[in-house]
Amino acid sequence: MQIKSNYPLKNITTLQIGGLAKKFVSINSVDELKEAVQYANTNNLNHLVIGGGSNLLVSDDGVDMLIIKNEIGGIASQGLTLQVKSGTILQDLVNYSISHGLSGLQKLTGIPGTLGGAVYGNAGAYGQTISDHITEVVFYDGQHIATLSKDQCGFNYRDSGFKRNHNIILEVTFQLEKADSDILAKETAEILSKRLVKYPKGIKCPGSFFKNIVTDTLPQEILQKIPKEAVVYGKLPAGYLLESVGAKGQQLDGIEIAPYHANLFVNKGSGSATAFYDLAKKYADLVKQKFGILLEPEVQLINLPKI
């Protein structure tokens, strides 16, 4: 394990944005994780565990902490059950499930990052979420390793209890369903072709920036302003709201809101976290003014104020 100083976080984020981490380390085992956490505690540093860096907006000023990049990977299977280490690349897990004829993860194809990050944010796509088939999660709280059942994880739409308790996800157990690999592969190929239209290869974008809104949480007077056809899978897309206030195609200092999707904020090559944040906040404020809806980032903001 090698701890580095003043590490440029833009090197490991999909956005290629982010200042320096005071300390940075990649870990490949639970023992190294424990050692890294102990190092942070001994040196009075806060620490943050990250996965693939695909869902992060890191301040240009960097962070005065130890960033721990989780690269603990591995998949073990027994029948319909998979036990997966949290640093496993999510796409590798999806591919594994398809090749072994296991249904329940195939719609997550094309989502970047690691399993740990996906579970942390309860990632999903096309009506399927990572938590649908989870049975338990093993975690490290900084002192002890323990296990939570699915019901104890606090999963909700794009949310989990791990966002609040800061326990470090180590391993996830899935109970999947038997299916035909060829059928799963065909379904995955169709989904991936759709995603590539939205997210072309090489795009510097963290995915949808704002969470969609669960319509059951909205007051009736707000819902009356929304066309029924705008609701998808019981969610009101943030992109619809942002488009309604003119966000599509807007730019600020190297950051662009995609002209084809108002909830995709893209670094065109020279953008900063400040420009990204300011552009997102501007249109979130306009949505609040017009609809009375407060948009919540799906992307994790590091050393930046709430939007």
Note down, in words, how this protein is organized.
- It is a single chain.
- The protein is an alpha+beta fold.
- The protein has three domains: 4-70, Uridine Diphospho-n-acetylenolpyruvylglucosamine Reductase, domain 2; 75-185, Uridine Diphospho-n-acetylenolpyruvylglucosamine Reductase, domain 3 (2-Layer Sandwich), CATH 3.30.465.10; 200-302, UDP-N-acetylenolpyruvoylglucosamine reductase, C-terminal domain (Uridine Diphospho-n-acetylenolpyruvylglucosamine Reductase, domain 1, Alpha-Beta Complex).
- 26% of the residues lie in helices and 26% in strands.
- It has eight helices and 20 strands.
- It has a five-stranded antiparallel β-sheet with strand order 6-7-13-11-12.
- Strand 9 and strand 10 form a beta hairpin.
- It is globular and about 50 Å long.
- One of its GO terms (biological process) is cell division.
- Pathway: Cell wall biogenesis; peptidoglycan biosynthesis.
Please give the structural blueprint.
Layout: E1 4-8, E2 20-27, H1 30-42, E3 46-50, E4 56-58, E5 63-70, E6 75-78, E7 81-85, H2 90-99, E8 102-103, H3 115-120, E9 124-125, E10 128-129, E11 134-140, E12 145-149, H4 162-165, E13 168-175, E14 177-178, H5 181-198, E15 213-214, H6 220-223, E16 235-236, H7 238-244, E17 251-252, E18 255-257, E19 265-267, H8 273-291, E20 300-302
Parallel strand pairs: 2-5, 3-5, 4-20
Antiparallel strand pairs: 1-2, 6-7, 7-13, 8-14, 9-10, 11-12, 11-13, 15-16, 17-18, 18-19
Assigned CATH class of the largest domain: Alpha Beta
The CATH architecture designation of the largest domain is 2-Layer Sandwich
CATH topology of the largest domain: Uridine Diphospho-n-acetylenolpyruvylglucosamine Reductase, domain 3
Give the proportion of residues in helices.
Answer: 25-40%
Q: What is the number of strand segments?
A: 20
Largest sheet: 5 strands, antiparallel
Number of helices: 8
Shape: globular
First CA to last CA: what distance?
Answer: 36 Å
What percent strand?
Answer: 25-35%
Overall pLDDT: 96
